[in-house]
């Protein structure tokens, strides 16, 4: 008799819904490095991360959550978001497809409902309970089959197989029903948070209608008892009256926020959909700032970086204090092999950045490193470390730091930085190798020696080595 585990059946159901629903992740991790190890395609961008934090801040406050919950970008074209522990993941596809900030704010509010409601912990408890049910049913079925064999009763053996299969099915359906209830609770919590913050729930309805349209176009017939989320039609029916009756229903996003959203969409479109993506996205407003920003990025990625600099300078005349225009200017100058001028642009971006992203100081340090002098390498170390103090898990930053120490001949620090980079990218074996090499060059008990020891004895590393 062939049977399937409960966990594999639930996983299969969740995967089938990934493109039409907001899927609550079952795994929990304490660091981005674990997600890197699992090959989740993480995207880092100072501008997008700052915008999402601005979207989320009032929602988190309304939900009673701490404001420093990480929001992590996933490079995936589907419209989806999920939570894992105290981290929220949002697909780039959701950001690019959402035409207004309100749509993404609704997504964030829904996921905040999962975190505030402790749904992951309760889901783990339900999963354990369901697995126990399935195991008991399997044992009962096995006992019946043994009894059937002992008495030469084929019928009793067949009943045993039926007990095992039925037990698995009951457990699976119970878990799916529980998940649907939690999704409905998160939807209603989202409405509450939006109401508290004076924002419209229209974006949530637009999102669910998008799912409903996608489901209709697919021609799929879904059994509502075989899925982990309510159907889009049911979600709309449950929320529409609450949303429409809110005094905030027709409230629009502030123009400045909408503009930032448009520029975010332009950036994602250029990097994920190629050269023609921006012109298609902004065909109704080809001279708007979002379209012009996308055009400058297209020149940087696919054209002449000097032309990109000229286009960025035109943007800066409209918004002279925009740190991300200076960041793009630095990127283009780096591509044009002008690291000294790039460093000046990145320095201005760092100075103007209200979000104090760790990414920008690291870019500044990278440009200083490319200048190639001992003085610039020393300065690069200062600014890269400044970025890593803010963004400790930035694996790329450690690689630049290692290069800077290598230029100066400080091999111990270079190898320790290399170990850190491997550690935060999830390559724990390599991290331990470089940490051991670095430790041999440090004085025992010194800060570098101690940090190397931390990496060497890391449980993640030991587990990865089979310990």
UniProtKB/TrEMBL annotation:
Query: Keyword Plastid on this protein?
Result: no
Endpoints of the signal sequence: 1-36
GO BP terms: namely: proteolysis involved in protein catabolic process
Q: Which GO terms describe its cellular component?
A: membrane
What are the Peptidase M48 domain coordinates in residue numbering? 45-242
Q: Give the source's domain of life in one word.
A: Bacteria
Q: Which Gene3D superfamilies match?
A: Metalloproteases ('zincins'), catalytic domain (3.30.2010.10), Tetratricopeptide repeat domain (1.25.40.10)
Q: Which UniProt keywords apply?
A: Hydrolase, Metal-binding, Metalloprotease, Protease, Signal, TPR repeat, Zinc
In the record for this protein, the TPR repeats are positioned at 323-356
PANTHER family under this entry? Answer: METALLOENDOPEPTIDASE OMA1, METALLOENDOPEPTIDASE OMA1, MITOCHONDRIAL
**Name of the protein in its database record:** Peptidase
In its UniProt entry, the species of origin is given as Pseudaminobacter soli (ex Li et al. 2025)
